[in-house]
Design a protein that fits this description.
The chain is mainly alpha-helical. It contains 7 helices and 2 strands, in the order ααααββααα. The protein has a two-stranded antiparallel sheet with strand order 1-2. A hairpin with a 2-residue loop joins strand 1 (about 75) and strand 2. The longest helix is centred in the N-terminal third of the chain and has 13 residues, at about 35-50. The protein is globular.
Length: about 170
Amino acid sequence: LQRGADNSLPDVVPFLEATQSVDGGAGYRPGNGPSTQMTGVAIWSYRLADVTVEDPRVQRALVWLRDNWREIRGDINGVPFGANSIYYRYWSVVKALSASHGRVPEGALNAESFGELNPDDTGYPGTPAGYYYDIAHRILDQQNEDGVWPRDNNGWTSESNHIFAILSLER
């Protein structure tokens, strides 16, 4: 570990606070509008900096993710949402929520607060429901028969799509 590197993560908290909007979402830089990707990265970074899940900053970001869950899963009103970097979006949400498990006070959100799909209804009985299932189902649904995830304006490159799709599926 480089000298001083172990103390740098707590220093990120003021930056994260500056990127977080009043609605809880986070932007790439202070003053930027919120995005799913940056909100996921902000939650993950807060957690890595030992900010608890029940902390109001993390809770506001989790509320933002919950309120935008259908877009995050990749569909709005049942129509596929073709945003650039969709697989990076999935990865950032998986990282954020995988760091947000555990007990929280009543009314607070954690990873267990996410997920809409019922595995029984989608042909996977006995599979646990939740955020991971929703995202994995969507990613695998988008994969071509040859194992490649299509670019189709949904990522920076075919390679980045493939990398972030696999990283999102990692447990």
